Amino acid sequence: MVERTLLTHGAEADDVDPATFRHVLGHFCTGVTIVTGLDDSGSPSGLACQSFTSLSLDPPLVLICPGRSSTSWPRIESTGRFTVNVLAEDQQDVSMAFGSRTAAKFDAVPWHVTDRGAVVLDNVLAWVHCDIEATYDGGDHQIIVGAVRRMRILRDHGPLLFFRGGYGLPTQKSASTISTVGDR
């Protein structure tokens, strides 16, 4: 039996502990992206980011939510632009590398810089290059609105999905074999 608890009108947010919050929202499937950019010295920087969505068609805007504990995001943010790389289902190793806190993230995949400064990981499904339009407080994350400047589809393939703390869906793999993502 699955237990379901709902907050009633007037209930305090304090009634929701972080573990329950993470568990419940883990039931929403997301795609996996890698946010990249060049830092002020011209070195690449990147992080795994599941919080990505389209925001507006006119003007074209997207939204990402990097964690405040990220050591990579401040280096990207300082330049005023970023690139979102949408991962394919065969790029779990790329997600794992960029979800770690190692300096060797860019050793996991070939990459290049476009003529407009977008840091694109090779063989991703698509990429979206943005200027930072606005930044908002989001608790332990930041809410970043990106004004889309360039975008491309690189290949036709299934997406890398994240569900219930692991890659893929239980219908594709048994729940016991779904691997988990490390701390970003």
TrEMBL record:
Keywords: Oxidoreductase. InterPro entries: Flavin_Rdtase-like_dom (IPR002563), NADH-dep_flavin_reductase (IPR050268), Split_barrel_FMN-bd (IPR012349). It comes from the Bacteria. GO terms for molecular function: FMN binding; riboflavin reductase (NADPH) activity. SUPFAM superfamilies: FMN-binding split barrel. Signal peptide: none annotated. Residues 25-169 form the Flavin reductase like domain. SMART domains: Flavin_Reduct (SM00903). The keyword Cytoplasm does not apply. Belongs to the non-flavoprotein flavin reductase family. This is Flavin reductase family protein. It comes from Frankia nepalensis.
